[in-house]
């Protein structure tokens, strides 16, 4: 169903820094604490594995959140057709393909094929007039920004 004229399409917003940090912190801290009990041959009740888990979990949470939180990039694009073609080519070089029937509200969706999509997420693109909005993981947005700047798009 197409959006009504008074509805503006919006980009999906993924998890921000806090939720992404928590996800990576908990997973890394738990795995580190369990590994520390095995490597150091001490129990969780000593507190030593928990301290290692907290330290490594904080580092893992910061790294994971800085790379994998969602972010948005806004660019100007004088020609929608040219911009879409250049963006499609750049995303194809990164392994992404447009999903033609993913949404019907004007938001373009790009994803990687097969197993690669499980670990990389999607790229959402909304082109309104002379402005383009891209939403994805921060690591993908950084790479896209570099590639688009090399192509002369800012």
Notable characteristics:
154 residues, five-stranded antiparallel sheet, 5 strands, 50% helix
Terminal Cα separation, in Å? 33 Å
Helix content: 40-55%
Q: Give the integer mean of the pLDDT values.
A: 89
Assembly type: single chain
- What is the number of helices? 5
The secondary structure category is alpha+beta
Overall number of strands = 5
Share of β-strand residues: 15-25%
General shape: elongated
Strand order in the largest sheet: 1-5-4-3-2
What do these coordinates show?
It is a single chain. This protein has 154 residues and is of the alpha+beta class. The chain is built from five helices and five strands. The protein has helices at residues 17-40, 48-68, 80-93, 116-120, 138-150; strands at 70-76, 96-98, 107-112, 122-128, 131-137. Helix 1 (17-40) runs antiparallel to helix 2 (48-68). The longest helix has 24 residues, at 17-40. It is elongated, with a radius of gyration of 20 Å. The chain starts with 16 loop residues before the first helix and ends with a helix.
